[in-house]
Design a protein that fits this description.
six-stranded mixed beta sheet, alpha+beta, Creatine Kinase, Chain A, domain 2, binds glutamic acid, binds magnesium ion, nine-stranded mixed beta sheet
């Protein structure tokens, strides 16, 4: 049948959705210059398609300019056509970044961090997801059999990731029912989030290609484990040398890394509405799910919001090059651009304020009373999206990190998302998120 290849120019938006418009591949060069038209109110389309209250109404026009560095061709080398997509920046027609462009928001956060420290951020998103409607038998957690169930998925995905310029790291059967995890090697700057957005699309595309459906929902079943996103971070200096590790620093962190983590944890209860932005995110962020429930640092502790990851003496990679920490209070309902932007701003704020590196906790914080927690400087993270949004919107330091009007748009968007779920049972809410993510 006759056909002409199309490239989808896309954006990862406030809803954590990838939306876009396709153009002929023949026009790629022209489109890299001219972009495609975009509509401001699109940003208020929630993950459930209902349009939240929009300050833009039917007015205004924007332009989405693709960045060729993110161009992906997912070619399966079978009879089905390749998938082509490219991420970009949303600009006003005058050429300035649009206030709700998530990629531009991340670029601004990274510029702030780089200007402050002279360092570059290196990082990678570790993703969990599950395959829907598979019903593999029980007893599959971390097993070889569970891996073999989805070997084709894993191998196809690995090939597509590599061709897309990502460096595949691992693919494994996770603990949850039909749950898998995929990791890639770190990259630098805005590419960290580009790669996360690309990886999610490639997981969806690969699953669909194999007549399956993948879901990144933060929580499929309140009785089960969640699908987390763990954002690994470390720093590089201007010469490209690792700049996070100090053998004499607290838990091996150098001064700037300790301050960065202190800032992330200080502002965590106010950025959670960005990093874990769904209603079900808050059931995932409860104790004993290996996610995050308190604003604590952990040394290799999988229940900490920020965890210092292990290094291994048997690796061929030097310890200071392996050394990194991960942010665990994130999920895939968040645009990777926004989640990383919020973390980078909070971390840079910690450096601005010269905060001290916190000590890592080594116990189960859920056993402490509120008084004990408070006296040690910890707090239980917000337990609903509404509470998290209230914290986010009411701190002038935090709202200042984002462009004018962004916070108002974000809060209205999330209110629209919550309103859609009104009257639904917990099971129905989980099902709605499983469907949409
Ligand atoms: N599934 C857990 C989460 O929701 C993470 C498990 C792990 O440590 O890999 O974050
Ligand atoms: Mg995992």
């Amino acid at each position: 049948m006759i056909r002409e290849a199309l490239v989808l120019a896309c954006t990862s938006d406030i809803a954590g959705k990838v939306r876009g418009k396709a153009f002929s591949e023949q026009d790629l060069d022209k489109r890299l210059q001219r972009g495609i038209g975009w509509t401001p109110t699109n940003v208020q389309i929630t993950c459930f398609d209902a349009i939240a209250d929009s300050p833009f109404g039917a007015l205004g026009d924007l332009v989405l300019i693709p960045d060729p560095a993110t161009l992906v061709t997912a070619e399966f080398e079978d009879e089905k056509p390749a998938e082509r997509f490219v991420f970009g920046d949303i600009l006003q027609t005058s050429g300035e970044a649009w206030q709700c462009c998530t990629r531009s928001i991340l670029k601004a956060a990274l510029a702030r961090f780089e200007a402050k420290t002279g360092l570059q951020l290196l990082g990678a998103f570790e993703h969990e997801f599950h395959l829907k409607g598979v019903s593999a038998p029980h007893g599959r957690a971390y097993t070889a059999a569970g891996f073999r169930d989805q070997r084709e998925m894993g191998e196809t995905l690995t090939a597509l990731l590599r061709r897309a310029g990502l460096e595949p790291d691992t693919f494994m059967k996770e603990y949850g029912v039909d749950q898998y995890e995929v990791t890639v090697s770190p990259s630098q700057g805005v590419t960290i989030a580009d790669q996360a957005a690309i990886l999610r699309e490639l997981v969806y595309i690969t699953a669909e290609h194999l007549d399956q459906r993948a879901s990144f929902t933060p929580l499929r079943d309140p009785a089960g484990v969640g699908n987390g996103v763990h954002i690994h971070m470390s720093f590089r200096d201007a010469e490209g040398n690792a700049a996070t590790y100090d053998p004499n620093g607290t838990h091996g962190l150098n001064r700037v890394a300790g301050q960065f983590i202190a800032g992330v944890l200080k502002y965590l209860d106010r950025i959670l509405a960005i990093t874990a932005p769904s209603v079900v995110s808050y059931t995932r962020l409860t104790p004993h799910r290996w996610s995050a429930a308190y604003n604590n640092l952990g040394f290799r502790d999988r229940e900490a919001s920020v965890r210092i990851c292990p290094t291994s003496d048997v690796s061929d990679i030097a310890k200071r090059d392996q050394f990194n920490f991960e942010f665990r209070a994130a999920d895939s309902a968040a645009s990777p651009y926004l989640a990383l932007a919020a973390i980078v701003h909070a971390g840079t704020q910690g450096i601005d304020e010269g905060l001290d590196c916190p000590a890592a906790t080594e116990e189960d914080l859920s056993l402490l009373s509120t008084e004990e927690l408070t006296s040690r400087g910890y707090l239980r993270l917000p337990q609903t999206l509404e509470a998290a949004l209230e914290n986010f919107g009411s701190d002038p330091i935090v709202t200042e990190w984002f462009p004018d009007d962004f916070v108002d748009v974000y809060l209205r968007h999330k209110k629209g998302e919550i309103a859609f779920l009104e009257g639904k049972t917990e099971a129905e809410i989980c099902a709605a998120y499983e469907e949409t993510y």
